[in-house]
Structures are given as structure tokens and as C-alpha cells.
Amino acid sequence: MPHPLNPALAATFPPPVMEARRWLDGVEFTADRPLINVSQAAPVDPPPEALRQAIAEAALNDPQAHLYGPVLGLPDLRAELAHQWSLAYGGEVAARQVAITQGCNQAFCATLATLAGPGDEVILPTPWYFNHKMWLDMAGVHTVPLAPGAGLLPDPEEAAAKITGKTRAIVLVSPNNPGGAEYPAELLRAFADLAKRHKLALIVDETYRDFDSRNGAPHDLFSDPDWPDYFIHLYSFSKAYRLTGHRVGAIVAGEARLAEVEKFLDTVAICPSQLGQMAALWGMVHLSQWVAGEREEILRRRTAMEAAFADLEGWKMLGCGAYFAYVTHPDPRPSPDFAQALVREAGVLMLPGTMFMPQGANGAAQQMRIAFANVDSDGIAALRDRLASLARS
Description:
single chain, alpha/beta, four-stranded antiparallel sheet, 15% strand
């Protein structure tokens, strides 16, 4: 008889990106019709050469690159992020209010571990980032879905109606994964006021902040002197500096919460990768202009996506921004079946909306997420042509 499984973990759905990759098994792609992979939001190109050189030099010449470091991260990286965030957001962030993690997913898990346990509730707007939902399921925390309104924007008043005595946090992602929506500053402020009023945590995951189409600060939440009492900010270095394999993320929160986060991180990973942190610090100090160029290229791809789908028969764009477009499709097949058929019939890999929505949710069977950041304008044109051809066949 097999050993028993943790019921909460066993009930958690499998990793969606890994499931989608298995759809490629046995499918042949040719030189004249290669796979167009718009399934995962991760840079496929390496970091710029100057950053790779800095990583190599640290690996060769800095003994600390290969040792344990502080659980909450390198002091210089914490200080640099605090400095840049204070300038960018017009508030005050101190180094002691920053923790470095093994990627932003770990930042989310560590944060939730300080807030909620079995039987507690967390409000999560839909469509949601599936790893957030997976962690809540594993931890026995009940996810309370918050359906979006126009533009895939959540409504604070509807969130307020869902707050109970078991609610511990509201989680927002902006720019949004999977929907692409950029939440207006006044919307984030309304959610912050709601969280403050009800003594909840507002968690804002800004993994894609470097690719926001707006200029200036996306919100003013750090300008409130009381922000450490209710606001928790999450960030990833993976996208801006192409450091996905190095796993470097961050939490910005009050000191008392980070003392609890330290317990989690010490138990799970002891400390973040030293080499990855050194790379993130070098990037923050030296690559602002390069990141600005990356942002401009992503914005060009966003424009190309919007143009490509504007007259694509039967398709409708619900949201587009940062790395993502969230769309409805015209095929009669439910989105999981259609997504698998796209691999065979069009050489396209994208994820169905059912991976980002509650089971049986209205509309999910017609929704798809397109992660377009790794596809240039020519690739986006090819994607459009293949989808158009599929509709005609």
C-alpha cells in the first residue's frame, strides 16, 4: 500500500505550464512552420553580456558567491531596492523593510505563511495567477474568487461584500498576470483603504512593473506613513534582468512581518542564491537604460498584438499589457480542448482560460492567455495568420 499523501497537496491541480508542455509530445514541427510558444511568461534570451560578465567575475573572484548569506538577503541589494523604490513611488522604504527571496513565487508563499492558515480566507480576483491559487490550496486556505468588471478590473465594493471574519488578505497583480490589465492608481488606493479599514493585508504583486505602459509611479501606496501596517509589495528580478534561472525576488513589508518571513525562508531555503543576488544588484545599479529599452520593445509587441487581434474574426481581446493578452476564442471546443488542438493544427502553444479560473467558471471555456513577450512583431503576425487560417479550415 502506498504511503498516504497530504490531502491538501494531493487535491491541488498540477502545474499548468508543465501540463501544457506535455501537449507537445509526439507532435512534429517543421522548419517552415516552427512552434509558436506563447504559453509561459519568462524571457528566453540570456541576460545582457555585461551582466553575464559580472556574474562570471563574481563566481570566479568573490568567495561569498558560493556561501550561505543572510536569510533576508544581501544588505546592499536590500538597500538598493529600498532606495530605488523610495524614489520611484514617492514614499519611504527602508532596507530593513525589504527581504530577498528565491523568486517572487517564494515571496508570495512566505508572505501568505505569515498571514493565513487552514480555514482562513484570501480574496483573489479572477482570472488569477495559478501559482497563487495552488499555494492557497496547499496551505488549506480558502480562496474567495472576485470576478472582474470591465477591462478585467476588480471592484473594491464587491470585494468588501466578500470580507468575513476569516478573511486575512486581498491579493492583486498589476500589471496583471494573466489578464494584462494595468490597475489605475486610484483603484489600488481604494483597495488599500479597504484593507486598512478592515485590518487586512493588501498584497500587490508587481512582477511586471518594469513593463507598465504608464510613466511615473503606478500608485502612491508607499506615501502613506502607515503602509507597513497593511501593505505588502512583491517583486521579481527575473523579467527585467532576464534572471529567471537565478531565482531572485523581493518582499517589501513591515519589519515585524519580515521577522516572521525570516522563519519561513530559513526553513525552506536558508538564504537566497548569492550569485543571483549579486547579479540583481549589478543590474539595478548599471542597467536602467537597458531595462528602459526592454520596456519599449515589450510595448511595441503589445501594440502589435492589439493590431493583430483588432480584426481577427471571432476573437476578442479582454485585456492586454506587460507580457500578456487575455482573449476569447471562436472555436466551439472548450478552451482546454482547443488549446491542445492548436498545437496539432496550428503549431501554437497557449494556455486555456480554465487554468486561471475557478472550476466551471462562466466564460472560462472561451478564454485563452497569450504570453507574447518572447514573440517579436513578425512572430505576432505569424500567430495571427495561423489563427486566421485555422478559422477558415
